[in-house]
Amino acid sequence: MSASPTLEDGRIHRVSLEFSVTSQPGIFCAGAPGLDSFPESVAMQVSTLLAFPLRADDKLCGVLTLSRKEPRPYGSAEMETAAKLGGALVAAMRELEREREVEALRAKLRSARHENLLLEKRLVERKLVERAKGLLQVHYGWTEEDAYYHLRRTSRQQRTPMAVIAQRVIDVVAAKEVEAERMSA
């Protein structure tokens, strides 16, 4: 493992760590090169720092750092605890990533459902227009183009959607048929 200090935005010191695939935790002691690269060491006057690589699927996904003010080395129990904590952090990061993916899929599903509703509405409106066109053709002897032109022109003149005009035509024709049946009976 090696550490090199870098500046980000010229204000905050960051550390760039390079771990080999089989790297064990890195221990930086007072005076060791790279210790002052960690923000913790500057803020707390750390004498010993344990940098533990966090891995997920053999990829480095983060670094857990434990710092100590007193000049005492880290023991195996502390390193074991850090390893367990690192494992828990990796699991939490995976769960967070999974939740983000699930939320992205839910957003896509909501969008697809909304689009589906719009398409269904357009289909229903189109069916109304087709039905009204057919009734105009039958009752007034118009061609398909004339019936459509009449619906479109009426829609524009009244500033009303064609589906509403089509429903009105259907209602008027249905009322006329009911009246004609009543008169003939």
Describe the structure.
This protein is an alpha+beta fold. The protein has helices at residues 39-44, 76-140, 144-158, 162-184; strands at residues 2-8, 12-18, 26-29, 48-56, 59-68. It has a three-stranded antiparallel sheet with strand order 3-4-5, covered by helices on one side. Helix 2 crosses helix 3 (144-158), helix 2 crosses helix 4 and helix 3 (144-158) crosses helix 4 (162-184). It is rod-shaped.
N-to-C SSE string, H for helix and E for strand:
EEEHEEHHH
Number of helices: 4
Secondary-structure-derived class: alpha+beta
Distance between the termini: 99 Å
Cα-based radius of gyration, to the nearest Å = 37 Å
The count of β-strands is: 5
Q: Could you say which overall geometry the principal axes of the C-alpha atoms support?
A: rod-shaped
Sequence-ordered SSE layout with sheet pairings:
Blueprint: E1 2-8, E2 12-18, E3 26-29, H1 39-44, E4 48-56, E5 59-68, H2 76-140, H3 144-158, H4 162-184
Antiparallel strand pairs: 1-2, 3-4, 4-5
Helix pairs in contact: 2-3, 2-4, 3-4
